[in-house]
Structures are given as C-alpha cells and as structure tokens.
Amino acid sequence: MNGEAMRDQWYPVGIAAQLTPAGRDSLLLGEAIRIACDSDGAALVTDGAGRALPVITRFGHVWTTLGQPERDLFTIPEADQPGRRLVDVGTVLVRCSPLRAVENFLDIAHFPFVHTDILGSEPHTEVQRYEVEIRDDVDEVWATKVSFYQPQAAKSAQGGINAEYMYRVPAPTCSVLYKTCPARPEEWDVITLFVQPLTETTCQVWPWMALFDEDSSMTDMIHFQQMIFVQDRSILENQIPALLPLDPGMEIPTRADMTSIAYRRWLKRHGYTYGAQLVAA
C-alpha cells in the first residue's frame, strides 16, 4: 500500500454528538469502516471485517486509526479555555488529495482572489515576510509572524483589520490556525482543519473552531466558515496534478509558499505519501 506511514496516524471520522447506534459506513485510506455508538453514547469504530478500531473522542470529534500510532492525538489547549465557544462546523466532501486540502488551508496568497472582500481584497495582495520552521521537539510544522489585511477576518469582525496569523501542522492531515481575535485582541481565535482521507483523491473535511464571540449565533458562525471552505472547494477540485507533488522540482514556489515547502519537506521526511506524488509524471 502506498503510504504505510499514514496508517499509524489518528484521523477524524465523525462528530461525537451526531453518532447513532445504527451507525454509518465510510472509508479511511481506501478501506471500509463503520462509525456508530453504543447505548451509552460511546463511540464505536470497526473495520470492514468487524474488528474494533482504537477510538479517541476529542475536539467534539471521533478519531480512529488503522495502524498503531506511536503517540497520542495532539492537543489544543485553547479548547479547554473558559469562555470560548466550541464550534463543530460540520463536514464537506472534497474531491482532492487530503494533503492538497491541508496545503490550501496553509496558503495565504489566495485570500484576495478566492475570498474576495472577506479574507482579502485587492490591492492588498502582497504576502509579507514571515517565519517557518519544523519544530523537531514536537515534530510539527509552524509558521509565525504572518500578517495580512482582511476586510472581514471573522463573523464578529466590524470592518477591516490587519490580522495576525500562526499556522501549526501537528499531523499530516490536520492544521491549526491561530489568528487575531476581533473580540479580544489579546487572545487568538483557533480555526482548525481536520481531514479524513477517504481515498488518495477524495477526502472528508471536518472544520472546527474555538472562538471568543459573544454576539454571533452558532448558526451564523457555522455558515460563515462553511462559506469560506466552499469557496476553496472549486479550486481544490481543479488542481493539477491531483496528488500533492513532493518533488521540489515539480512546481515553482514563491516566497509566499514557505509554509507549503516546509509542509512537503516534513511529509517526505516521514514517508507520509498517501495522496502525494513523489516524482514527475
């Protein structure tokens, strides 16, 4: 199987509050799984042969694995911070590589052109210098000191602001964004992208947020984030090649692509190749 290392990772497969005893069928890395709950509401995940798979319930989602992860699922301390609203955004099926979905989430340069007058606008198109590193002590990719002008940085934002960002990649198909919180400038809003790899070219995306927002309704916050991701979907589903290229010679990067370069290098280092293209076709 291509990308054996990907089996030993945790993946989101559902929202805990939406599980039913009847269950539902799905895919994970091309293999059949079933997600359900017992009479007490505890999550149950089985493979195609009916074998029980490991389960973790965290960030309102159910996570499982087909292999034997060497470590626990990552944590997000802000999820336990009093006063934050935890938002299960739902799910979006995207016909693209699961790695492409994460890389797009890390990209800032597309904001003015895809999320026009919301996350970006012309002529504010320049991506300022920022810092990227692979933090070996935690084995994560981080981008810091990211700054970008946004007409509406969040549902609660009133007018444009110069938003500060930090990006964190704690797992091959997960990314965590920390950005300026309009309601509390001293805090960070947290917006995540949890991706379930169905096949190498299709994925289920489960966005989740931990926000300080006392004014917006839960429905409005969900609709705002879903609108943003649906704008991305048409771009993702038309990218060529469909798989994420890991060979540095296959695409020409720019300064704005520093996070993408580090992400691809990190994936290749660990053999995370499911959904990736290693050499030019």
Give a topology summary.
Blueprint: E1 11-15, E2 24-28, E3 31-37, E4 43-47, E5 55-58, E6 61-64, E7 85-88, E8 92-94, H1 98-106, H2 111-114, E9 131-135, E10 140-150, E11 161-171, E12 174-180, E13 188-199, E14 202-211, H3 218-236, E15 244-245, H4 258-270, E16 276-277
Parallel strand pairs: 15-16
Antiparallel strand pairs: 1-6, 2-3, 3-4, 5-6, 7-14, 8-14, 9-10, 10-11, 11-12, 12-13, 13-14
InterPro entries: Cholesterol_7-desaturase, VanA_C_cat
Organism: Paracoccus litorisediminis
Protein name: Aromatic ring-hydroxylating dioxygenase subunit alpha
Number of strands: 16
* Helical percentage: 10-25%
**Low-confidence sequence ranges:** 152-157
CATH-defined superfamily: Naphthalene 1,2-dioxygenase Alpha Subunit, Chain A, domain 1
At CATH level 2, the architecture is Alpha-Beta Complex
| SS content category | alpha+beta
Largest sheet: 8 strands, antiparallel
| Percent strand | 25-35%
Rg computed from alpha carbons, rounded to a whole number of angstroms: 18 Å
Number of domains: 1
Name the average pLDDT: 86
Shape: globular
Q: Remind me, CATH topology?
A: Naphthalene 1,2-dioxygenase Alpha Subunit, Chain A, domain 1
Count of alpha and pi helical runs? 4
Distance between the termini: 19 Å
Name of the CATH first level: Alpha Beta
Instruction: Return the string of H and E elements.
Output: EEEEEEEEHHEEEEEEHEHE
